[in-house]
Design brief:
The protein has 182 residues and is mainly alpha-helical. It has five helices and two strands. The chain is elongated. The chain has one domain. The protein has a two-stranded antiparallel ribbon with strand order 1-2. The two termini are 25 Å apart.
Length: 182
C-alpha cells in the first residue's frame, strides 16, 4: 500500500461514511429511535441550567443520566451546524484511515469479503460503546440497536468502497506488470 492509495481511500471512504451518516440521520426514521422531546422544554432547560452549572455528564442514584451541554446564552446549536459537520467529517477521515490499514492487511481478497470484514470491525467498535451505554445508563434498546445498525452498515459501505479501490489498484498493477513483461 502506498501513500497515494491510503490518501485516496481515506478521502473517498471518509466522504462515503459522512454521506451515509447524513442519510441515516436526516432521511431515515431510525436515527431518532428512543429519543423524546421534553414535555415542557423551557422548564427543563431552566432546571438543568440551575442544577448543572457546567457542561458535563450528570447522574443521580435514581437512574437519571444526562449529558449536559448548555451554552451560557442558551443559543440554538442547530442554527450553525458547520463546525460540527467539519469535526464529523474529519472524524470519518480518521476512522477510514485506520479501517483502510486494517483492510489492506486482512487476508480478504474480494470486495464483498472486505466489506463484511469492515462491517464486523464496525460491529466490534459499536458493541463496546453502545452496549455499555445500554447496560450502565439504561439507553433505550431501540436507540442501541439503531446505532449498532448505523455503524455496521456504515463500515460495510466503507468496506465496499475501499475494497473496490483495492481491486482497482491490483488490476492497474497487474496491467502495468503485463506491459513491462512484453
Amino acid at each position: 500500500m502506498n501513500a497515494k492509495f491510503l490518501l485516496v481511500a481515506t478521502l473517498v471512504g471518509g466522504i462515503a461514511l459522512f454521506v451515509w451518516g447524513a442519510v441515516w440521520h436526516m432521511a431515515l426514521p431510525f436515527s431518532n429511535a428512543g429519543m423524546h422531546e421534553f414535555a415542557n422544554n423551557d422548564l427543563v432547560v431552566d432546571v438543568i441550567g440551575e442544577n448543572a452549572p457546567q457542561r458535563g455528564i450528570y447522574f443521580s442514584p435514581q437512574g437519571i443520566f444526562a449529558a449536559v451541554n448548555i451554552d451560557p446564552g442558551l443559543t440554538d446549536r442547530t442554527a450553525s451546524m458547520g463546525p460540527y459537520m467539519l469535526v464529523q467529517l474529519l472524524t470519518e477521515f480518521a476512522v477510514v484511515f485506520v479501517l483502510t490499514i486494517l483492510l489492506f492487511h486482512s487476508t480478504f481478497t474480494t470486495i464483498l469479503g472486505r466489506a463484511v470484514y469492515a462491517g464486523i470491525v464496525g460491529l466490534a467498535g459499536a458493541l463496546t460503546i453502545h452496549i455499555a451505554h445500554w447496560n450502565w445508563y439504561s439507553f433505550p434498546t431501540s436507540y442501541t440497536l439503531s446505532e449498532l445498525a448505523n455503524n455496521v452498515i456504515g463500515f460495510f459501505l466503507v468496506g465496499l468502497v475501499v475494497g473496490w479501490l483495492m481491486q482497482r489498484m491490483a488490476a492497474q498493477r497487474a496491467e502495468t506488470m503485463s506491459f513491462t513483461v512484453h
